[in-house]
Amino acid sequence: MGRETILISLLASTMLTTAALAASREDNRAEPVVGEEQAVLTDAPNAPPAITRKTATKVVVHLEVKEVEGRLADGVRYTFWTFGGHVPGKFIRVREGDLVEMHLDNHPDNKMPHNIDLHAVNGQGGGAAASLTAPGHSSVFSFKATNPGLFVYHCATAPVAMHVANGMYGLILVEPKEGLPHADREYYVMQGDFYTKGANGEQGLQPFSMEKAIQEKPDYVVFNGSVGAMTGDKAITGNVGETVRLFIGDGGPNLTSSFHVIGQIFDSVYAEGNMSTPTKNVQTTMVPAGGSAIADFKLTVPGTFILVDHSLTRAFNKGALGMFKSVGPEDKLVYSGKTEDQVYLPEGAGVRVADAPAAVAPVAQNKAERIKAGEAVFANNCSACHQPNGAGVPDAFPPLAKSDYLKNDKAKIVQTVTGGLSGKLKVNGKAFDGVMPAWDLPDEDIANVLTYVYNSWGNGGGEVTPADVKAHRAVRKAAAE
Amino acid sequence: MARRAAILATFLAVFPSALAPACAAPAGMAPVPAGAFTPFFKMIPAKGQRGAEPRPIALKAFRLDRFPVTSAQFAAFLATNPQWRREAAPRLFVDPNYLRRWREGAPAAGEALAPVTNVSWFAAQAFCEARGGRLPTTDEWEYALADAGRGRDQVTRISLDWFARPNGARLGEVGQGAANGYGLSDMVGLVWEWTEDFSATGSGAEQRNTSSKDDAAFCGGGAAGVRDPADYPALMRYALRASLKARYTQDNLGFRCAGDE
């Protein structure tokens, strides 16, 4: 075979590949449309049922745009702009080759004009140009679903960043003709960043902050429209042995998600929502703003698995945290749980302690000094969980600020620190079920940190002295013997 | 003449209830001095040219209502122009939500001093003409809002607060907030307002109009073609105008009238 022949055959194969791809889009364009149906639309975390049709059809979608006041976090209200009344917008599911007729209905109560840009559309503005709709009006356009995939849709009315920041995004799945592999449960999870006039946690109705949005400094990063939308009672669930699929979207407007489920490996990820090449065995998948991913995993053990944006201060401090509860029998081979807890004595530890000069801890002389010293103890030992402002983390770590738990008697509070605390607990009306370890700190430190807590964040004041802690330990010891 | 109007206007500012239907129409207007206005939208450069930055254009002095037109004022207009009543107005000029909460030519109870809303451009224009005035052009309206650069942060803040306020509540009365430097109240924060050329974005004899109204109203087109992409409330106003047709009406859309000096 001469060089020219190789070149020609290379060229030919390239052309063949291109032709095959182009034909696919062309095939879907040409596929006859049989009949008509109304789209089944769902709110997160639910997804509509899989499509079993063997033919393309006309799917009629009605999306009602509503500007509604709702909960962004506990005590924090926000005026969301929504496709269908909730953030994220309704999940739309169609089949490759379908003719989709979009009706965008702008509720008469609304103040704003809105439109829709579906990333599943080949056409100017993804439909935005055709769907700019004044309040009290309705627009219609249609498109052929020529490309399979999981696509974001969003409002694209200027200023688009504000419309999206207020919650105007959702997902549309264009399911491949052959369908997706079977999954026992499918869920819809969409991340978004929110920018409020007040800082994170500031109560009341919070207007949008244009400055923070432009600086890309959100106060909240959340799954499904609010802090805690998928935690506690609202966790998504499954049984051991089932296959779970997450349709994951990121509305942004600004942040890319490092999407991760703590304690699960994704068996397959359809990166960026593409349907042709799932990646196997993925820990964390990147979901771009205005993009998507599909993650499949099989539940092999029971437990609560935490959904996070692994850019962790977003999960820890801004709300990007959800829960998946798996129920069923343990498999100790897959995961044993804790099997031992022993005292660890490194070799030569005693020698080093003996060599070290005795540490001289400063001793607080009065309550003011105690509070000051306690602040440092708090920062080093407590603030990671209870937060520097004492607010705690919803569903995970109880608040110390204005905490009704602190109204218990002093002995119980000292015991909480020296002995730890675990199991179900109610603080300020909110339920918790976690573990606080026992703190092996000097009496002086415990006295100082508790005095600091008693005298901070709207708590009732008071003082704990090292003598109190010492007496408490003596009582406990006597009781134990 | 100007002085007399100013005195009357001051009186009206102190006694907003004097805005009742009986009051003479042009008396509620404030003079807005001539000046330069830089359009919000950039121009499309001619082939082979660069520099799409909008150039300032000269605006003549004009007069503008100090407050949005109230329901009481509109009721007075309907009394003498019954062809614009809800039952009578031709569908060609109003959509089905025209004056949707009015009954028998009267506004909903307690809303006499709130801005009239659910009025079409045609109805607004007819109202202003009946008073010997007209609707302001978009450039005039935006120039009046810009207030010679005074209080821009204020305008942004009031706008964003208004966007966040839950819908469906009764509209407030006009004149609750402070007037701007020209003596104009409630330009933002109460209702949107019709302009004479709402459907053209920044048109003018001197300038080649940029983008079609559609381009102006969505996504990339919205940000690439404007003087200040960080002015979200301005983008909102232009997008709202671009979404309208002259017969449309809206719960949050009112108007005020202008006149020539």
TrEMBL record, chain A:
Its EC number is 1.7.2.1. This is Copper-containing nitrite reductase. Residues 1-22 form the signal peptide. Residues 369-457 form the Cytochrome c domain. Its cofactor is Cu(+); Cu(2+). Binds 1 Cu(+) ion. PANTHER family: ALCOHOL DEHYDROGENASE CYTOCHROME C SUBUNIT, BLL4482 PROTEIN-RELATED. Pfam families: Cu-oxidase_3, Cytochrom_C. Belongs to the multicopper oxidase family. InterPro entries: Cu-oxidase-like_N, Cupredoxin, Cyt_c-like_dom, Cyt_c-like_dom_sf, Cytochrome_c-type_DH, NO2-reductase_Cu. GO terms for molecular function: copper ion binding; electron transfer activity; heme binding; nitrite reductase (NO-forming) activity. The lineage of its organism: Bacteria, Pseudomonadati, Pseudomonadota, Alphaproteobacteria, Hyphomicrobiales. It comes from the Bacteria. It is an enzyme of class 1 (oxidoreductase). It catalyses: nitric oxide + Fe(III)-[cytochrome c] + H2O = Fe(II)-[cytochrome c] + nitrite + 2 H(+).
UniProtKB/TrEMBL annotation, chain B:
InterPro entries: CTDL_fold, Sulfatase_Mod_Factor_Kinase, SUMF_dom, SUMF_sf. It comes from the Bacteria. It holds the Pfam family FGE-sulfatase. The keyword Signal applies. One of its GO terms (molecular function) is formylglycine-generating oxidase activity. Transmembrane segments: none annotated. Residues 1-20 form the signal peptide. Keywords: Signal. The keyword Mitochondrion does not apply. This is Formylglycine-generating enzyme, required for sulfatase activity, contains SUMF1/FGE domain.
